[in-house]
Structures are given as structure tokens and as C-alpha cells.
Amino acid sequence: MVALSRANDQRLPAELRKQWAKLSLQVNARMHGDGPWDQARMAAHNFWLRTRMIEDLGPDPADSDWDAAAIASGIVNAVVLTPQQARGQSVRWQDQPSEQIGHLRRIKNITAPFERLQYHLQPGPLRDLALEWLSVRKHLP
Asked: How far is CA 70 from CA 6, 35, 76, 95, 136, in A?
């Protein structure tokens, strides 16, 4: 919690904030269970923090933690469905079993950083995919 607070402290120099953010990412990677909700929470926090640091300090393609394309690729890889599949499964999601609703909800949480990350992605297939996910997110539980 201290590391995350320091990473977000805009009074600190950029490099120090990045160091605190990296520590927060390391802690986050170790403080979760193996269940799907724990894994999704860890991934969502990871992508959110990395995106937040890019917004505050700018991207750094030399470091994959602060590279918009690397984060977007990580999000896409963390979601096992395509946007079309997720959209199809979200139709009448209220009628789905609770496990399926939970799965769709985790996808929505993991893809949330695309809202801000889209502005840092170069035009191309990855940005197009991020935008597609943003349109699908509206239909997920």
C-alpha cells in the first residue's frame, strides 16, 4: 500500500515514482491467491498502475512496464476471448450461470485500462483491438 501511494505521489521525482511503482507491481504479483478472481484482480491492478504511470509520466518504450503497446498486448493476452466472443456471450448475460457472469466481469475489469491507454497506442491493429474491446465493454456485466 505504501509503494502504491508513493508511486502516485506527484511531488516525487519521476524516476523515484517509477521505482515505487515497480515495487508495487512486485508486491501485487505476490499478494494474491490462485483463484480466478485473485488472478484477475492482480492483472487488472498491474495494467491499471502501469497505464496510470504512462498517463502521469509519459510512455517509455525502453521499459516494457511503461510501454503502451506492451501493456495493451498484456491485456489482450490476459483475456482468453476475442471481443466478438465476449460480445456474443454478453447477450442476455443475466441468464448465464454465475461462473460465466463472473468470467465476463473479470474481462471487463481487465480491459478497463484501454479507456486511457488508447490515447498512447500507435494507429494499427493493436489500437484497433483496444478500441474494439472498448465497444464490447459497454455490454459486459
From this structure: 23, 25, 10, 35, 21
Q: Closest Cα to residue 105, out of 137, 80, 73?
A: 137
Residue appearing with cell numbers 491507454? 117
C-beta of residue 120 within 8 angstroms of C-beta of residue 72: no
93 secondary structure, DSSP code: G
What pLDDT digit, counting tens, does each position of 84-109 carry?
999 999 999 989 899 999 999 999 99
Rounded to whole angstroms, the Cα distance separating 6 from 109 reads 24
Mean of the per-residue pLDDT values for the chain?
Answer: 94
Give the whole-angstrom CA distance, residue 46 versus residue 26: 9
pTM for the model stands at 0.90
